[in-house]
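Why should sequence recovery work at all? Because a backbone constrains its sequence more than one might expect. Tight turns favour small or flexible residues, buried strands favour hydrophobic ones, and helices have their own preferences. The token representation captures these environments compactly. In the example below, the structure is given first.
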């Protein structure tokens, strides 16, 4: 698994440390800060004493995707950070991620009723938007590096098919991404996966696979009669996060 940690050097430049978590080796490269929004990052650090006024809005928005912290909060500065070894960088990321995740989990608990009410309304009115919002909510609460949700959808009819009076047929769609959810039409691979886990869709939510070593997470959920397959790459999964997912899908059940 690869971790990418960014350290802002100035308002115009930043260093990216890419760490291989299996052997703790890492490489560095320099980028312009204007590319932060397009960069895949797992942690972003900056010196609170630097003048970063033009980046403040970007930093605030990026914090919804991954942890962002001052170096001072981690008892570091730019010089001491540069002396860290690979294993220390992995540990630093884990510490920052835990804080960020806990904050997200607490916010979700505080807003769970509002979130479920909003999602249930989307489930009826706009199914695609429902899954995009669900994708983001799950990602923030389990810190998924990569998240895919496969679900039943209706295949849109052509004008000729509509004229013939044909009815929409069931198909599979997926919402997937590392930072932003992208809605795509499912193909044979998605149909095969749904078939492979068919017997796991008995409950409204069930974690079928989780490997901390491989960072693999698979869960099977159901809203009404609609099966939902969730696959993610994550580094950890604690009881609080599991309970939030259970509460979320329990609340989404069709009455």
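From this structural description, the recovered sequence reads:
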């Amino acid at each position: 698994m690869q971790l990418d940690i960014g350290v802002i050097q100035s308002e115009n430049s930043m260093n990216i440390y890419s760490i291989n978590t299996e052997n703790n080796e890492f490489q560095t490269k320099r980028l312009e800060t204007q590319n932060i929004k397009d960069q895949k990052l797992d942690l972003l650090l900056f010196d609170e004493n630097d003048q970063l006024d033009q980046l403040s809005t970007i930093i605030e928005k990026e914090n919804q995707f991954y942890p962002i912290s001052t170096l001072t909060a981690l008892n570091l500065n730019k010089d001491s950070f540069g002396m860290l070894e690979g294993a220390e960088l992995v540990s630093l990321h884990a510490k920052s991620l835990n804080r960020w995740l806990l904050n997200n989990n607490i916010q979700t608990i505080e807003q769970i009723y509002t979130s479920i009410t909003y999602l249930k309304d989307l489930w009826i009115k706009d199914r695609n938007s429902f899954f995009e919002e669900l994708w983001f909510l799950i990602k923030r609460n389990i810190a998924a590096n990569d998240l895919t949700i496969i679900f039943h959808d209706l295949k849109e009819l052509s004008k000729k098919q509509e004229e013939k009076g044909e009815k929409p047929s069931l198909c599979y769609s997926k919402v997937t991404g590392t930072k932003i959810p992208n809605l795509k039409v499912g193909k044979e691979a998605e149909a095969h996966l749904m078939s492979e886990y068919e017997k796991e869709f008995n409950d409204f939510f069930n974690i079928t696979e989780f490997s901390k070593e491989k960072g693999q997470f698979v869960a099977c959920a159901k809203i009404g009669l609609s099966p939902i397959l969730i696959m993610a790459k994550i580094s950890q999964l604690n009881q609080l996060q599991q309970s939030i997912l259970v509460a979320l899908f329990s609340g989404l059940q069709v009455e």
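A few observations help interpret the result. The chain has a mean pLDDT of 89.
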